Amino acid sequence: MEGRDVSGRSPRPTVVVVGHGMVGQRFVEELAARGVTARARVVVLAEESRPAYDRVHLTSWFGGTSAEELSLVPDGFLEEHGVELRLEDPASAIDRAARTVTTRSGAVVGYTTLVLATGSAPFVPPLPGREADGCFVYRTLDDVEAIRDAAARARTGLVVGGGLLGLEAAGALRDLGLTTHVVEFSPRLMALQVDEGGGGALRRTVEKLGLVVHTGVGGQEITVDARGAVEGVVLSDGSRVETDLVVFSAGIRPRDELARAAGLAVGARGGVAVDEHCRTSDPDVLAIGECAAASDGVVYGLVAPGYAMAATAADLVAGRAGRPFHGADTSTKLKLLGVDVASFGDAHGRTEGALDVVYADSRAGVYKKLVVGADGTLLGGVLVGDAESYGLLRPLTGSVPPAPPEQLVLPAGLTPATALGPAALPDDAVVCSCHHVTKGAIVAAVADEGRASVAEVRACTGAGSGCGSCVRAVGQLVDAELAAGGIAVDNGLCGCFAQTRQELFEIVASLRLTSHRALLDAHGRPEARGGEGCEVCKPTVGSIIASLAPAIGADGHVLAGEQAALQDTNDHFLANLQKNGSYSIVPRIPGGEITPEKLIVIGEVARDFGLYTKITGGQRIDMFGARVDQLPAIWARLVEAGFESGHAYGKALRTVKSCVGSTWCRYGVQDSVRMAIDLELRYRGLRAPHKLKSAVSGCARECAEAMSKDFGIIATAGGWDLYVGGNGGASPRHAESLARDLSDAELVRLIDRFLMFYVRTADRLERTSVWLERIGGGLEHVRDVVVHDSLGICDELEAQMAAHVAAYRDEWARTLEDPEKLARFVSFVNAPGTPDPSVRFVPERDQHKPDLTVLAGPTLPVRTLEGSNPS
Amino acid sequence: MTTALAPLTRSHPAPSPLLEIGHAGAWVPVCAPGALVPGRGVAVLLPDGEQAAVFVDRHGDAHAVGNRDPFTGAYVISRGLLGSAGAERRPFVASPLLKQRFDLATGVCLDAPDDPALALPVHPVRLR
Ligand SMILES: Cc1cc2nc3c(=O)[nH]c(=O)nc-3n(C[C@H](O)[C@H](O)[C@H](O)COP(=O)(O)OP(=O)(O)OC[C@H]3O[C@@H](n4cnc5c(N)ncnc54)[C@H](O)[C@@H]3O)c2cc1C
Ligand code: SF4
């Protein structure tokens, strides 16, 4: 195609793309990958005001994902490839004879190849009143912004349409705090994807979430008040629902209007008709994505088929023999309102002679159906409420499964272990359908290329980086392959426990075990039972017990009873061990705010005990060089002056930094200092898998560097934005947005849940940044759990945090009250009054530093210590 | 060196027992065994200025080794955590600084078993 105009004197060939949606952008990327952007001019005409963004995750915008985060266009991509993007200048006409496109602004652009990627438009049924104030569709970022603004003034919302998008919209309205109705014309929800049984299970679960479902009725009229705003909806059965807001989500219509006007052929049910190479009836005009009716006559309303068409069309433009597009698998797995819903293959059993195998548990809201052919071939299925097996079942479609179908629908616990493993899949089974990665490719990545984790396999094959529904199956394949290669995958915490930290946490919580010894003897590896444990499991279990102390009835003091024997030396002496065996001391200074009187006390204590002082990065003061036997006397003075432990020694909350915020700063929009103090006082003493840092900035200028913290808060005019998973240090990572514009109470509630979920599920010494990357489903999953309560555990998480907050008492104050604990703070058990002669100092810049010569042995050089400093 | 403290039975009331460790041919008193927390250690100042680390495990057995960490030179071994490893459940201490493990019966550094310079001296223990 492109060849024609390149000949002789003609100018560079030009590819004009109409529409910069998900598929349009993907098409441009595919062109770049094939080198076409280097040879040809590429012009993209866009109707929207923003470059392409991830429409599939549009709903996450309500949960705090910003428009920038949703963008699909990598920074610098357009410039690098010389792509001309004209935002807000849609195509208004095509002149096929002249080979030009005219835009709304009047520009005329000549093309060699024209590619239509105009997507589709929401269908709005012709109800009287549908133009009223308060009526919306659900398709673009502008739409969701308008819905949020309107919801702020509304109490009730109604969604017309109970399909996939309708339920997603309803979930969003519910999360915005509206009483939400869903009106669906068919007799069940998601009629397209699931059958009657599945629809029933879905309905029960959705109703439990507080949505009001009306099925088998349509909207008849929208009633409007005197000011032209929505007041209610009259349904086809004559009933009336009062509502302030209506969202139409009753299906989509391909945007084929330009093509029709230009005389191109369209499909029977709309959509620009194309052949298997995405050519329209004019071979120089292609159509891809949701605006096209594929060669099988179907208009695909999903993104994966659109991406496949983008690749096919790019092959054609590049002059390559590409993979023709005959049609696509419409299997889907998604999480709607926290409910897993999946359908694949012939979900409705339309094939002749097909039989159903059904498992239903309406109490748990689980419904699973497999459609099996007369010869035992798996034809398709519907999974509602438990879609764990989707990743393995979908690739088996079209083959006879290795286990009887009855077994395949049983819940995980009841399935014989051998029933369905990844080994059951044939090598050419497509495990990741977004990126078309086969089982064979994943196995090869592990066996031949030495990739040893899901993350590594994802990086080299792309598997699991699309919708994420296959991540579990990929994980099973990787583990199975590693095991087959003789690489034992032992996820156990240490030589004493075969369980992970998370599993031990669950055991301790549910059995209310308050002793490491009891846990080891009952749940340790057989060879470790009756032993001592080790330096890995002792502090880990100590930390779990400390995190859960009030909930399981353990003493909240880390030096109480057996707990004293579990702590690393820092926790054992409630101070930070330094290289010469001395300790450093960090009193808590919440939010970094301190009175002159308290500053003076710190100065006096440091002077009187000869301590080296330094300001930390966490806005407090660290005093170095104390001997063990000096710690009680130092703390007696500090506690007396109103200080308490700063937990710089613990895997616990360190500091909540703050900028001065609206109190002093002319830019500040909220009182960041007050919030930082409140948060630091709330979470102080919380033991966690690793240290936790936080900061609060008073405006978007971000002077407190909240984006580099485990949880960071940035003030907005309307409240607070919460970011999580940030990290400084050796592997810096920007925190990601968890939720936006929260009130004080919402912010605290969300942090409560987030922290407790982290404490519960992270590995030992796993910072939030690493945890978010490792945990299946990543930030999205965490958001589902802590914002949408998809696991139903938020009440429990909040209760655990409330118990921690209520039970908090300063560790140092309690230690000073207890002679038995104090007795341990001696350098020598047989000479309690004698200071340790090996802890000595030499002068350095008006203060002093450890004297290492006393430590140097006869033969060994003194090694340096890294990474042990508090802040 | 290791000695069993727990099974000790006394037929008549005696003055509370005292734990002692051997050093340079003499016995040095440490403390009453009850003063030790199972799983933790204490430091002992020896008459010649050297230091020892004494631990008691969950079965009541006491162990004594040198207190100086050969990797850093710091006198901190007594602040390490006690553990046991292997089918024989041999007790060890992990240095609190860089976490190397030392066998408590032999003093050998389990991360460098062939390097005698990295082993801890071992002291005999007795109860009197
Ligand atoms: C809320 C929501 C959730 C979804 N969830 C899923 C899901 O879970 N899984 C899934 O597979 N799919 C899902 N989809 C569908 C998916 O978003 C679409 O399949 C995909 O966006 C189609 O890409 P497209 O480029 O064809 O169309 P679009 O992304 O709609 O892009 C078309 C673009 O063309 C522009 N345009 C139209 N006419 C013109 C013109 N004349 N000139 C210039 N520009 C024009 C439009 O403004 C638009 O920006 C969801 C969609 C929505 C709205
Ligand atoms: S973040 Fe904003 S409010 Fe805080 S100091 Fe900086 S500019 Fe001022």
From TrEMBL, chain A:
Residues 430-479 form the BFD-like [2Fe-2S]-binding domain. Pathway: Nitrogen metabolism; nitrate reduction (assimilation). [4Fe-4S] cluster binds at C659, C665, C699, C703. It comes from the Bacteria. Signal peptide: none annotated. Keywords: 2Fe-2S, 4Fe-4S, FAD, Flavoprotein, Heme, Iron, Iron-sulfur, Metal-binding, Nitrate assimilation, Oxidoreductase, Thioether bond. One of its GO terms (molecular function) is heme binding. Residues 331-389 form the NADH-rubredoxin oxidoreductase C-terminal domain. It is an enzyme of class 1 (oxidoreductase). Belongs to the nitrite and sulfite reductase 4Fe-4S domain family. This is assimilatory sulfite reductase (ferredoxin).
TrEMBL record, chain B:
The keyword Oxidoreductase applies. Pfam families: Rieske_2. This is Nitrite reductase (NADH) small subunit. It comes from Streptomyces zhaozhouensis. SUPFAM superfamilies: ISP domain. GO terms for biological process: nitrate assimilation. Residues 28-128 form the Rieske domain. The keyword Iron-sulfur applies. GO terms for molecular function: 2 iron, 2 sulfur cluster binding; metal ion binding; monooxygenase activity; nitrite reductase [NAD(P)H] activity; oxidoreductase activity, acting on paired donors, with incorporation or reduction of molecular oxygen. Keywords: 2Fe-2S, Iron, Iron-sulfur, Metal-binding, Nitrate assimilation, Oxidoreductase. InterPro entries: NirD, Rieske-like_NirD, Rieske_2Fe-2S, Rieske_2Fe-2S_sf.
